[in-house]
């Protein structure tokens, strides 16, 4: 109850209708948010998007689920389901159940929105909502504090999101000891597995940048070898030619620069390129500047591809 100007209590305003497409006359169910917004929806679409709703609508009504109590009252002849979530959450959930031709995909950019989507995906069994979070984590744009998404996903048993969030954390150095509220909801195992996962990824980076045998098929293209013995690295020779020292060392520099955040996206590394150009200038055969930068450019791209492939194979163990 709230008060009017003359001090008399007036009833809360009646539930109001949601906007299109959730105000259709041909709807056959009403979902009422906790803050009093009625969404008119279609059982068939909800059932197709969610096993939870499918089970609910196949049971005798009007008391289909303990999670979503239906009221005795109907509105316009339709059963009203009462949700504990607010208008934004119910609208978001419905948007993921409906075809894109009827409503745009909700924006899930912030950690808070991703948490909201994961909770709804888990509670109401809407796989498309978790898929949207995974897509966001795999997108080019960085998610701030992906560790928080990782923790929430772990607490809900959303494995695909846990894996995608762990991978996303590789984009930045890991700050041990950061105290997020989401940590309270997970066992220490969740954090330990993330630390182990990142250590395994650093090991993959180390192997990619020190054992360069995987580059063998590309050697002719990238002119990674030199006939000048003074230019030889202490690495193995291939076909009686020497791997250029500056070329092999470029990978070692890349390791040093990337080992705190071992991801495949940041492989144009100006410091490492400058260092390679400087070292190459000491060899009469390798001195040509364009040759060095072209070789490094191709090598960086191949390292990015190889590292991305191998990082995808690093396993993250979860109990679910
Ligand atoms: Zn050389």
The level of helicity is 40-55%
Q: Strand pairing plus helix content: what structural class?
A: alpha/beta
Task: Please indicate the percent range of residues in DSSP E strands (runs of 2 or more).
Answer: 5-15%
User: Which radius of gyration do the C-alpha atoms yield?
Assistant: 28 Å
Q: What small-molecule ligands were found? A: zinc ion
Summed over residues and divided by their number, the pLDDT gives a mean of 87
Q: Describe the global form.
A: elongated
| Sequence of strands across the biggest β-sheet | 3-5-4-7-6
From the N-terminal CA to the C-terminal CA, the straight-line distance is 45 Å
Total DSSP helices = 12
Q: Give the biggest sheet.
A: 5 strands, mixed
Unreliable stretches covering 5 or more consecutive residues: 1-11
Order of helices and strands: EEEEEHHEEHHHHHHHEEHHH
The tally of domains stands at 3
Summarize the helices and strands and which ones pair or pack:
Layout lengths: L1 E2 L5 E2 L5 E2 L11 E4 L4 E5 L1 H7 L1 H8 L11 E6 L2 E5 L4 H11 L13 H13 L3 H12 L7 H11 L2 H11 L18 H23 L8 H4 L2 E2 L15 E2 L1 H14 L11 H11 L8 H24 L8
Parallel strand pairs: 3-5, 4-7
Antiparallel strand pairs: 1-2, 4-5, 6-7, 8-9
Bound molecules: zinc ion.
What does this structure look like?
The protein is α/β, with parallel strands linked by helices. It folds into three domains: 10-97, Potassium Channel Kv1.1, Chain A, CATH 3.30.710; 111-186, no CATH class; 206-311, no CATH class. The protein has twelve helices and nine strands. The protein has helices spanning 43-49, 51-58, 87-97, 111-123, 127-138, 146-156, 159-169, 188-210, 219-222, 245-258, 270-280, 289-312; strands at residues 2-3, 9-10, 16-17, 29-32, 37-41, 70-75, 78-82, 225-226, 242-243. A five-stranded mixed sheet has the order 3-5-4-7-6. Strands 1-2 form a two-stranded antiparallel ribbon. Strand 4 (29-32) and strand 5 (37-41) form a beta hairpin. Helix 1 (43-49) crosses helix 2 (51-58), helix 6 packs antiparallel against helix 7 (159-169) and helix 8 runs antiparallel to helix 10 (245-258). The longest helix is centred in the C-terminal third of the chain and has 24 residues, at 289-312. It starts with a strand and ends in an 8-residue tail after the last helix. Bound molecules: zinc ion. Zinc ion binds at residues 226, 228, 231, 244, 283, 285-286. Residues 226, 228, 231, 244, 283, 285-286 line the site of zinc ion.
